[in-house]
Design a protein that fits this description.
By secondary structure, the chain is α+β, with helices and mostly antiparallel strands. 17% of the residues lie in helices and 25% in strands. The protein has one domain (7-173).
Length: 180
């Protein structure tokens, strides 16, 4: 599930949203109210239940061969997402929906590389929400490794000290860090 040209996506487990109104998210690091969406490249970051902690890594221009092998694994592609075993059943059961939104109402957000798109005005979807389908299959079809780990933190610690690009979402919901 990816946006078409001129679109961004908002993923939700709620299929009844008819209008997106800017708000300050409970986990926001900024005080401005936004409607949040993602583009083609960041859509896979949201093929999960909303509260699911996930650690994601992908190859970028500055990734070393050693880190490619260490983080991705030999012959394992250019992107990996990791979750904990405790979330596997939720991934199998969650019904996720994608809302297509007009890209012209949004601007890129995030530094140094944008990781989202935001609007400061209310936005109406371009049509009804679309079921995303099997979230495991989404990963498989996109060629994204999905690792299921006992604990995310050892993987995350390796990722953030490497040369791969990365993102972590809802990590506060992960199991306790084994070294803390």
């Amino acid at each position: 599930m990816r946006p078409e040209p001129g679109q961004v996506l908002h993923f939700s487990e709620d299929p009844t949203i008819t209008r997106f109104v800017p708000h300050v998210a409970a986990t926001a690091q900024q005080s401005d109210a936004y409607v949040w969406a993602v583009d083609h490249d960041r859509a896979p970051d949201y093929w999960f239940p909303r509260q699911c902690p996930r650690a994601m890594a992908w190859i970028c221009d500055t990734t070393s061969e050693a880190d490619r092998d260490r983080i991705m694994g030999p012959g394992c592609g250019d992107r990996v997402h990791a979750i904990e075993y405790g979330w596997l059943e939720a991934i199998r059961q969650t019904r996720l929906f994608a809302y297509r939104l007009p890209a012209e109402q949004f601007r890129p957000f995030g530094m140094p590389e944008p990781h989202a798109h935001v609007s400061v005005e209310a936005v109406e979807p371009l049509g009804p929400p679309e079921p995303v389908g099997d979230l495991l299959e989404c990963h498989a079809e996109a060629g994204i490794q999905l690792r299921v780990l006992d604990n995310l933190w050892p993987f995350w610690d390796a990722v953030i000290t490497s040369t791969v690009a990365f993102s972590g979402i809802r990590l506060r919901n992960a199991r306790h860090h084994p070294q803390l």
